[in-house]
Amino acid sequence: MFTLQKNSSISALPDSAESVTADLKYQSFPQSGKLSALVVYQRPSSLTGADRARIDRDRRAVEQKITEGAEVHEAGFARDGRTAVVQVDLPVPGTELSFEETADVGDSVRAIQRLVGRGDGGLDVAVTGQAGYTTANADIMRDVNTTLFLLTLLVLLVILVVTHRSPLLWAVTLAVAAFALAVAEGTVYLLGKATGLTYTTLSQGLLTVLALCGSVLYGLLLLARYREELRTHADRHEAMRAALARTGGAVVTSVVAVVAGLLSLAAADLETTRGLGPVSAVAVVCALATSMTLLPAALLVFGRWIFWPRVPRHGTTVEPESRFWGRVSRRVGRRPRLVWAAATAVLGALSLGLLASHTGLSANETFAHEPQAVAGQRMLARGFSAGTTSPVIVIARSGAAERTLAAVRDSEGLAQPRRVAQADDLTLITAVPTSAPAGRAALENVQRLRDTLHDVPGADALVGGQDAIALDRQDAESRDRTVVIPLLLLVLALTLGLLLRSVVAPLVLVASVVLTYAAALGLSVATHRPVFGFAGQDGTLALHSLAYLMTFAVGHGVFLLRRIQEERARLGTEAGVHRAVAVTAPALTGAALVVAATFAALALLPLVGVTEIAVVVALGVLLDAFVVRPVLMPALLLDLGDRVGWPHALPAGLSPGAAAGSAEPAPSRTGAVAGGRDV
Question: What is the pLDDT of residues 183-202, one digit of tens each?
Fold first, then answer.
């Protein structure tokens, strides 16, 4: 999968973006084969003669030892005499770098960093520029998959040991999860080769989390029901058959609905978001397949003793209900309408944090910790124009080059406009922004420049460069939030409606997911600046966090709803709801802790956008487990009564059974294997 990755910023944009068109035309100029690294020297007072001698020595050393084909320019000095910069143009095939090409740029930049050092005696030295930022991202992403894999396994190990309290069961569960990940990675690689979808290193990181986490989540739900069935079946094969029949249906229903929702990401303009849909869907399907086939087979091979020391024996009391959640459910049942209204109000209040939302991050603000490229850019901005690392590129017809250059000179927020080169009928013009790269002012300057140049007759001018790419990405993100989020929820509701053969139940499930998502997002946004020090929210946060939170919240909701329907058929509505909450809450709570802890591990990556998604999903899953599923949803279902299944009173295959007062499951068939004894 690594060989299919495209991690450059321009590869994420749709072909219709102006910066993409500008980049295609830019390839006809020799400048397109270069990526600049800027070595910045700065002293609080004026640079000394020794400093200037060092700068010259460093420049010669870089020229002698750096990558073949690189061009090292003479040092430029700021007017105040405190800052100097040496530009090193590294050879690259184009702006859309592959995984291997990004690694080559990173190797060159790290070699430059070793040659020039970080300064001493009051002289600060840093390497920045587009090559510096590319390297900073590559350094973060280089070990992301190994780091995430190990962190996820560690988190899952701790949670599973605490949940199972068995020295063997956790190992089987993790082995199955690792197999799910291997299958998912192979499937995604083949899918990428066949379709050419855009994948990033982060895509694979999220694939790791979803495959491992999903497999463990579905496995926990199956294990909880299998343990319960072992107490009412003498033969473990019959117990597993019953557990699969009663758990598998709910899990398959949720996965089909989730996959349909994830595939709706194909409607996104942003290529990376579009690629996340199939990646996530493959992870979820592989997690389902392994947890419902390989895990049951492994459990049957080992027998009952896999649960040691708490081995469930046939004929013993059914696995006890959670006393805590049983009491909660009964109190909810006293005044269900008041409870769900109050819970809705609390979650709604948490969502008010969205009023403080500020979407959009500059290039410097995307890092949780300041890499050398950001430090160098800040140094550069104190002596030169703030946008020196991110020049604006204008490509126009040569016949209108003078008019275009004049318009660039008159444009606000740009300095040093000049005609750089001509290729065929096209002229390349560059200018240096006076604002920080990809900041709000820089994007506004690009939009003004485009509006101006589009009115220059005969120019057919295109504006490109990193700030233009950032503006086009912001527009694509805004469009995706507006279009894809409603589409995802609509697809989810329709799919659930078809699978559950109901109108009301899917609306309850989707509404609960939306409410949980809004509360988690609002709470997260409210804590970004005071707790984490983030300047704002990444543009993909709203859509991506909804997609991942939906993946788990829908599964929890369908699992609880199916169990309520099953228990209601035997015990009646009120007793069935109480029983379902009491027996499923421990499993759902354990699964939620697994998911929340795993996504919390993502926050260790020093990227603001990843940390924000991790926080939203972790908070959302916890709210779902401790507020929505055991309190809000049962209260709402009790208030709705039989109307929740409209137009069907009960799901197919379930019919009213035992008297409403009985809390024990009906006796089941023994179904012992002839000539064998269950162990």
Answer: 998 998 888 888 777 667 67
Q: Report the pLDDT value the prediction gives residue 669, as an integer from 0 to 100.
A: 36
Q: Assess contact for 259 and 187: CB atoms under 8 A.
A: no
SS3 652: coil
Spatial separation of the C-alpha atoms in residues 575 and 221, rounded to whole Å: 22
CA dihedral 530, 533, 539, 545 (to 10 degrees): -70
Cβ pair 586, 225 in contact under 8 A? no
How far, in Å, CA of 49 to CA of 56, rounded?
11
Residue 366 pLDDT: 86
The amino acid that residue 197 corresponds to is L
Taking the mean position of all CA atoms in its chain, how far away is CA 581? 30
Residue 265 and residue 488 in contact, taking contact as beta carbons nearer than 8 Å: yes
**pLDDT tens readout for residues 410-427:** 998 999 999 989 888 999
Q: Report the alpha-carbon distance of residue 415 to residue 391 in Å, rounded.
A: 10
- CA–CA–CA angle 111, 362, 38 (5° rounding): 25
Residue labelled with tokens 């909660």: 328
pLDDT class of 519 with cuts at 50, 70, 90: very high
Q: What is the pLDDT of residues 85-144, one digit of tens each?
A: 999 999 887 666 665 667 778 888 999 999 999 888 889 999 999 889 988 887 877 666
User: Residue 34 in 3-state DSSP?
Assistant: strand
Report the distance separating Cα 514 and Cα 247, nearest Å. Answer: 24
Q: Which of 196-200, 247-251, 575-579, 616-620 has the lowest mean pLDDT?
A: 196-200
Cα–Cα distance for residue pair 411/400, rounded to 1 Å? 17
Q: Which residues of 108-118 are buried (b: 16+ CB within 10 A; e: fewer)?
A: bbeebbebbee
Alpha helices (H) along 603-664: 608-623, 633-640
| pLDDT tens profile 556-595 | 899 888 888 888 888 888 888 888 888 888 888 888 888 8
Q: What tokens appear for 289 in the block?
A: 């397949």
At residue 311, the 3 state secondary structure works out as coil
Secondary structure (DSSP) of 73-105: PPPEE-TTSSEEEEEEEEE-S-SS-BHHHHHHH
Surface-to-core class of residue 314, CB atoms within 10 Å of its CB (0-12 exposed, 13-18 middle, 19+ buried):
middle
CB crowding 249-281: b at 16 or more within 10 Å, else e: bbbebbbbbbbbbbebbeebbbbbbbbbbbbbb
CA distances from 283 to 149, 174, 491, 494 (A): 14, 15, 19, 22
Q: Helices (DSSP H) in 411-534: which residue ranges?
A: 440-453, 466-500, 504-527
Rounded to an integer, what distance in angstroms lies between the CA atom of residue 45 and that of residue 267? 55
Place of tokens 């800027």: 38
Looking at residue 317, the DSSP 8-state letter turns out to be: P
Rounded Cα–Cα distance for residues 115 and 60 (Å):
10
Apex CA 297: angle with CA 294 and CA 299, to 5°?
Answer: 110
Phi then psi for residue 199, to 5 deg, are -120, 150
pTM of the predicted protein model: 0.85
- Radius of gyration from C-alpha coordinates of the chain: 29
Q: Does pLDDT of 70 surpass 70?
A: yes
Distance of alpha carbon 260 from alpha carbon 659, whole angstroms: 39
The gap from C-alpha 467 to its chain's centroid, in whole angstroms, comes to 24
Buried b (16+ CB within 10 A) or exposed e, 34-71: bbbbbbbbbbeeebeeebeebbeebbeebeeebbeebe
Under 8 Å CB-to-CB from 187, ≥6 apart: which residues?
282, 286
